[in-house]
Specification:
5-stranded antiparallel sheet; 3-stranded antiparallel sheet
Length: 167
């Protein structure tokens, strides 16, 4: 469990399936990430559980600390084709604009660099996803290259271990 001023972050679990499906069904949310039906969402949760066992990290539920409500997901994902670990985030539409992605992202970065021997962490963002680009910039990521992730073009942002924001 990772705690911030306003959020609780904990591993996603099967009990989050309905909220995870709802998140990945919101058209504005899935404009830049893939929508998931119930079967695909369950498979993604199962893969995340495997990642937790194999790597010690995976997807985290973002919960509002006061109410305990599910507002999104974030976490660290290892991409073997790049041999890199990515920080990703997605929030319900009604949670946008409140700084939650930046708060959760900062907590994940601090945790990731403290717990794992990662030389850097990436954020892979669709070029026209201005909101996520702003989150990455607030987290002090810098663009490093253009690439393709799951068939979609992305700009890969990076943050080095030892950067002042993650010490």
């Amino acid at each position: 469990m990772i705690e911030t001023d306003r959020l609780l972050l904990r591993p996603l679990e099967l009990g989050d399936l309905d909220q995870f499906v709802a998140l990945h069904a919101e058209p504005e949310v899935t404009r830049f990430i893939r929508p998931l039906d119930r079967v695909a969402a369950k498979q993604r949760l199962d893969r995340s559980e495997e990642e937790w066992h194999e790597r010690g990290h995976g997807l985290l539920a973002i919960l509002n600390r006061d109410e305990g409500t599910f507002i999104g997901r974030c976490g660290l994902k290892y991409w073997p084709q790049f041999e890199e670990t990515e920080l990703g985030w997605a929030l319900r539409r009604d949670a946008w604009g409140k700084g939650y992605a930046t708060e959760a992202g900062a907590a994940c970065l601090k945790w990731g660099f403290a717990e794992f021997e990662l030389p850097y962490i990436t954020a892979m963002i669709a070029p026209d996803n201005a909101r996520s680009v702003r989150v990455a910039e607030r987290l002090e990521f810098t663009p490093t290259r253009e690439d393709v992730l799951l068939g979609d073009p992305v700009i890969v942002y990076g943050l080095q271990r030892g950067h002042p924001c993650n010490r």
